[in-house]
Amino acid sequence: MGMPRRSVTLLALAVLAAAALLAVSVGPRVEPLPPHPYWSGAAPRSIAHRGGLGLWPENTLYAFRAAAALGVDVLEMDLHQTADDEIVVLHDDTVDRTTDGTGRVDSLRLDALQRLDAGHRWTTDDGGTYPYRRRGIVVPTLRQVFAALPQLHINLEIKGRGPAMAAPLCALIREHAMQDRVVVVAVDQDAIDAFRVACPQVATAATRNEVVRFALHSAVFLGDRYAPRAQVLQVPERVGGIPVLTQRFLRDARRLNLKIEVWTVNAPDDMKRLLALPVDGIMTDRPDRLQPLLAR
Fold first, then answer.
1. Does residue 5 carry a pLDDT above 80?
2. What ranges do the domains of the chain cover?
3. Do residues 139 and 113 make contact, with C-beta atoms less than 8 angstroms apart?
4. Topology of domain 37-295, per CATH?
5. What is d(CA 173, CA 168) in angstroms, rounded to the nearest whole number?
C-alpha cells in the first residue's frame, strides 16, 4: 500500500524546505579534491573485510596473510586500545565472541590479550568443527600488522569513541611510513576529527553524518556545493531498501573526486553489478569470490 497523499505532500515539502535551507547556507561551487596517493594504481579494488571473515579467523595475521596471498588490494581491520595503551586489531569491545577469553579489550594488558586463542570460535558449520583452534593464532597489534605486510594498503577503523587514539595511531603510521598506504575510518565524529588534526596527510573516510550530509546535498541538486572533509565515501548499496548509489550520488561524488567504496558485498551477482557502475572498491567477507571477477 502506498503512502497517504498527506504524507507524500509533507515529505515533498520537507525536501523542498531542506533544499531552500541548503541553497541559502552553502557557499559557491567546490573544486574537486586533489588526488590522494592512497588511491594511486588500478581500480576498482578488492577490500578484505576483517581480512576475509568468511574464510578464516577475522582480524588476525593468519587472515591478513591468506588474503594477501589471494591478491587482495586492501586489508580492512578494526582498532582498539588495551589497558596499557597498545593499539590492537579486534572488532568487538570485548574478546568474548572471537577468542577463548572474556572481558573488555580496554581492561586487558597486551600480554594477557595475546595469550588468548583468536582462532578458538571460528566455525563454518554451526560449531560442528573449529579448524583453527590451538594453532597459535593471536590478536595482533597494529605494529605487528604493519611490520608483516608493509606492501599492502590498509583500511583502519577506529572503534573507540573520543580522541584518545588519534595521536598514537598517527605516530604509528608515521613510524612505519604508511601515510600513503592507509585510510582511517571512524563512526565517532570526535575520533575522526581528532585524527584529521593529528595526521592531515592521511586519507580518511566520511563518517555516517558526513555521508548523510553529502547525500542530502546531492538529492537537492547541490552536490557540487558540498565541501568534503574526507577522500572516500564508504557506503552500503542500500539502506532500508532505499538505494544509496543513485546515478546522481555517483555523478556528484565523481565531480568532487570523492572515491566510493561499497560494503559488505558477498554475492557474486551483486559484485558484478557494482563493478559495472563502476565503484572504486568493494569490501567483502569473501575475497575468494571477488578476485576472479576483478581478474576478468
1. no
2. 37-295
3. yes
4. TIM Barrel (3.20.20)
5. 9
